[in-house]
Amino acid sequence: MVAPALILMAGVAGYPVLYAIWLSLHQYSVITPGLSRSVGLSNYIEQLTSPAWWTAVGNTFLFTAISVPLELLIGIGMALLLNIAFRFRTLLRSIVLLPYAVLTVVSAITWRTIFDPDLGLVSTMLNSLGLTDAGVVWLGQSGYAMTVVILADVWKTAPFVALLVLAGLQVIPADLREASQIDGAGAFRHFVSITLPLLWPAIALAMIFRTLDALRVFDLPFVLTRGAYGTETMSVLAYQTLRGNQLVGQGSAVSILTFVVVMLVSFLYIRFAGGNIRSVVKGGSR
Amino acid sequence: MTNAAIGRQPSKRRRPRRGAEHNPLVWCAVAVVMIFSLVPLYWLVNTSLKTGPDLSKASLTPPHPTFENYQAVLGDGDFLRALGNSLIVAATTTLLALAVASFAAYPLARLKMRGKFLILSIVLSVTTFPGIAIAAPMFSLWNDLGLYNTLVGLIIPYLTFTLPLSIYTLVSFFKEIPVELEEAAYIDGTSPFQAYYKVILPLAAPGIATVGILAFIFAWNEFLLAATLTYGPEARTVPVAIAFFTGASEYEQPLGTISAASVIISIPLILLVLIFQKKIVSGLTAGAVKG
């Protein structure tokens, strides 16, 4: 009974990856199906010696290194707030969830309206403070463009971190706080010495999910800038090579390289946070 | 008591701390979180209610609020087509994912199978595949097979990406159902299939709902494959239609109309998430936090 699912996944996930490896070793014609010639490793050599690939790697890691820690910090903060009992807590949880419910593409468009040079909220505020001339094209400048991409990602996915961490917080027994109070620990000490270690599995899980997603980021930079102004990530580069330039062999080589980078990072996570991931998988197989 | 032993008492919940309502710091934090969450959405709605010259002026509220953009979007044949495509793709993906995943999850949860851990690990590792690694070969494969720019060509890869988490979530839900119930059914003379169909499936309904909602959200949201594997309105889903929305010239995008379209396609998802938020949380954290 497991077979249909396995066959489908092998067919649609396993086979394409093998086919992608084959394609990446060939020069392939889109116009004449089936027409191709083997070019060995030259697609890879071309990519690995091109500045475009290394820029994309740099952009992707920059995006990941800034957005994931921000999402974790904001998400943990939200979770702690939602764990405190106060009126309207349920309402606040729904509000926190709203950005998560929004489509990624819509998140990109939302942040484009905020940073629009004419009608954007940011320009409006800066103008009223008399800080800049109207019409700074935020998305048309390196640095600013990546900032907008990161903001859009943090806004949409911090609630996801909050959900995971909140679920972790709610299984921590309340008597622990009473016990540490008797021992004379303040709220901060209690958080650092007791809550945080017990919360670590949930935080680690959120971190793994977010890092792997961030390394694959495509929707936000593509919709916001089409990968221009220092926002071309590995996935965007692969897409542009594949669709824009119709270079199937080259595009496949970039895809496989992206795949290898993501796998390397997941491997490092498993190596260094191994116990957590193993217990996650075992949670289902127990 | 060691930390580990304490950690295994999930039944005792943190008792609500009283007096938090009188803490001004809490209310400040609430205000910050609300501004962070809501202001961007407000700005999207604000933009969607503007037309003509208002769109080139910054203002905290639309000077002449109008639904013209919404009327324009809902009168646009390509957008409606994309909306229909999205509904078909998301609904079909959800139903097929539920059917295939529940059949796969049941033996993984119940039967003593060799290599169960290995199977689950492989299944989960599929979720770490970058979409682009699948998109490139699928693009040429679908070209050759004639599935390029078709809805079926989207549903097949979507199923692959929703199955791993669906199976994983369902396995942890199935495990919560006591084996004794099935054994009772066997004593009453049912076949394994009947036991599954009549006893397990109804009891697992909440888990199935969770998995279904998550699969629907994935399919409704997906952009990379939809952008790679389609080129025209015939098979475009809404996220792609919005991303490639163009106005009079290719480089000028009508922000008012795009914002209105964004609001329209977000509403079903927002409703789904708000109504089923508990189920979504339990799906996302199934087995993960319970450890």
Using only C-alpha atoms, the radius of gyration of chain B works out to 24 Å
Overall morphology of chain A: globular
User: What proportion strand of chain A?
Assistant: under 5%
- Write down how many β-strands of chain A occur, each being a DSSP E stretch of 2 or more residues: 2
Q: What is the string of helix and strand elements of chain B?
A: HHHHHHHHHHHHHH
Structure in words:
The complex is a heterodimer of chains A (286) and B (291). With 286 residues, chain A is mainly alpha-helical. Chain A has 13 helices and two strands; from the N terminus they run αββαααααααααααα. Chain A has a two-stranded antiparallel ribbon with strand order 1-2. The radius of gyration of chain A is 23 Å and the shape is globular. Residues 281-286 of chain A have low confidence and may be disordered. Chain B is an all-alpha fold and 291 residues long. Chain B is built from 14 helices and no strands. Chain B has helices spanning 3-7, 24-48, 68-74, 77-110, 116-125, 131-145, 152-176, 179-187, 192-203, 205-221, 224-228, 238-243, 255-275, 277-284. In chain B, helix 2 (24-48) crosses helix 13, helix 4 packs parallel to helix 7 and helix 8 (179-187) crosses helix 9 (192-203). Chain B starts with a helix and ends in a 7-residue tail after the last helix. The model of chain B is unreliable at 1-16 and 287-291 (pLDDT under 50). Classes of the chains: A mainly alpha (286), B mainly alpha (291). At the A-B interface, helix 1, helix 3, helix 4, helix 5 and helix 6 of A face helix 1, helix 2, helix 4, helix 5 and helix 6 of B.
